[in-house]
Amino acid sequence: MAKRGYSLAALVLILDQISKYWVLNIIRLPEIGGIDVLPFFRLTFVGNIGVSMGMLQADSDLGRWLLTFVTAGIALAVASWLRREKHPVDVAALGLVLGGAIGNILDRVRFGYVVDFLHFFWEQYSFWVFNLADAAITVGVILLLARAVLAKPGPQGEPNTGNRNDA
After folding, report:
1. Which one is catalytic: 16, 90, 107, 116?
2. Model-level pTM?
3. Is 134 labeled as catalytic in the residue annotation?
């Protein structure tokens, strides 16, 4: 079962890095600044030195590397959890989180920031600029939280994870 999660992580990583290559080298978004795609969607280049949604700005080399190592530690913990996980929804969720985390770690190592470019907005309301890795991480975390909240207690009051190995 873990192979499926690792395969999904690899797919997320590849798609994330291809999209960032396209943004940086093909359409050269940093030079253009932005491209209107739809009335509510724009490609906008942001070099994000923080974590998700620009929080916890790492504006020094020390901060950058601390953030990189902390994120790598979390990715290793997710990879370890994925290796033991049996439930298909959790395997998929962990694969999404792992692939997204590795994609953003690679950016931070290579560029010193994470390449964000997907920008949704509506009239005067602007939402965060993010990338495919961020989207994968968000979907993965939502799936994990939904499973945790919706899990029914087992016969002895323990959560029923739905694993085939549950007795």
Report:
1. 116
2. 0.86
3. yes
